[in-house]
Amino acid sequence: MGEFFSAIPEIKYEGKNSTNPFAFKYYDKDRKIMGKTMEEHLPFAMAWWHNLGANGVDMFGQGTADKSFGQAPGTMEHAKAKVDAGFEFMKKLGIKYFCFHDIDLVPEADDINETNRRLDEISDYILEKMKGTDIKCLWGTANMFGNPRYMNGAGSTNSADVYCFAAAQVKKALDITVKLGGRGYVFWGGREGYEFLLNTDMKFEQENIANLMHMAVDYGRSIGFKGDFYIEPKPKEPMKHQYDFDAATAIGFLRQYGLDKDFKMNIEANHATLAQHTFEHELRVSAINGMLGSIDANQGDPLLGWDTDEFPCNVYDATLAMYEVLKSGGLTGGFNFDSKNRRPSYTYEDMFHAFILGMDTFALGLIKAAELIEDGRIDNFVKEKYSSFQEGIGKKIRDKSTTLQECSDYALKMKKPELPGSGRQEYLEAVLNNVLFK
Questions:
Q1: Fewer CB atoms < 10 Å away: N or C end of the chain?
Q2: 338 among the known binding-site residues?
Q3: Residue 419, exposed/middle/buried by CB under 10 A (0-12, 13-18, 19+)?
């Protein structure tokens, strides 16, 4: 089969002064930042579902992009054509990872046994394409939200039959993830939540979700899966309220049900927006709990109230996100572009422009985040802000060597405390601008 993207060259780094639309301006994979190359800091991944499947269809109109790749959609020939196109795409961009849902890879059959046979066939085909390349699987997952059977969720369903069907999908998706050498496995609870509280037994549903996850962990470990399991928090959409509302909620759930040793967070920027958090907030919450695992790299539109999955272009957000990643010591997973082209951007060229934009945005964010850390003003300010806990009664509080009585006696002798030191927010924002634009 010939090239799908023959008009598009291999994408190279040309530097920030380049005007070549098919060149990286900031992503120089071999450039060293804080002791590691950009490629090591930024293990980028292609989302199979958006890049090879999303054609621009929305609730108001038909698709605009042709993602048939020369074959009739809904056939195994089309599934193989997507593999060929995907590997050509990743090679031209220098992307080393991909992510998938089970039914991104093959059309779902009416009989799960036939779907599984198709998954075996396509995963054999992917393995052949991987040979002789350095392209790997970042993570896999099962689509347990699209089919009508999951109208009430998968782990949270009220049907034992549907629950078992979901378990079968998870088992097969884990099999394929291990077969392809995946570094992680994701649970995105697309419909694990509720629409109406009066017809919902919340405790019952959450216990069943946790049980499904425990079974997945046990099975995954039994077949040699050594990677992390991930939860991808999202507060709403498609359900009105989803149980993995945000990172803090998901972490609490994992600890409550004894899953915290096997699971980490897969944080999506747009989902943070929907939860009315910043991207960096969700990364910080995950990191301080030892659960920052992987990232879905996209952005939302603050003027719209749904999951727009735009390619990231906001360098402020990327810088603050990479600041959190660097401070936490990096990811066990990677940066998956769970992003799709805007509906009017429907050409093959647009697919490449989008990934160049996203990769350059995070590369520039990495550069600037490292400069923020090396600049030292933010770290020095934060250290000084809490300096009263470095000696005297403050140190005793931190060392847990004081009592409520002793703290009270200290306050009574003091009579009245001075105001705490200024937060200096405007100064720190100026530092951020100074580093970003120097």
A1: C
A2: yes
A3: exposed
- The bridge status of strand 32-33 relative to strand 36-37 is antiparallel
For range 106-114, the mean pLDDT: 98
66 marked as binding residue: no
Instruction: Give the Cα separation of 93 and 337 in Å (integer).
Output: 13
Separation CA 54–CA 36 (nearest Å)? 34
**Interval 194-217 mean pLDDT:** 98
- Kindly state whether residues 120 and 260 are assigned to the same domain: yes
What pTM value is reported for the model?
0.97
Query: Would you call 44 exposed, middle or buried from its count of C-beta atoms within 10 A (0-12, 13-18, 19+)?
Result: buried
Structural domain of 256: 30-375
**Is residue 11 assigned to a domain?**
no
Residues 134 and 168 in one domain: yes
Please indicate, yes or no, whether residues 98 and 152 belong to a single structural domain of this protein.
Answer: yes
Closest to 54 in 3D by CA, of 66, 70, 72:
66
Residue 395 sits in the same domain as residue 366: no
The verdict on whether residue 88 carries a ligand-binding annotation is: no
For the segment 344-399, what is each residue's pLDDT rounded down to a tens digit?
999 999 999 999 999 999 999 999 999 999 999 999 999 999 999 999 999 999 99
Number of domains in the chain: 2
Written as six digits, the tokens of 192 are 């694990």
Tell me whether residue 232 is annotated as binding: yes
Q: Which residues are catalytic?
A: 101, 104
d(CA 109, CA 122): 14
For 418-432, the pLDDT digits (tens) are: 999 999 999 999 999
Q: Do 398 and 263 share a domain, yes or no?
A: no
189 vs 198, residue with greater confidence: 198
What pLDDT shows up at residue 189? 83
Residues 405 and 332 in one domain: no
For the chain, give the percent of residues with pLDDT over 90. Answer: 98
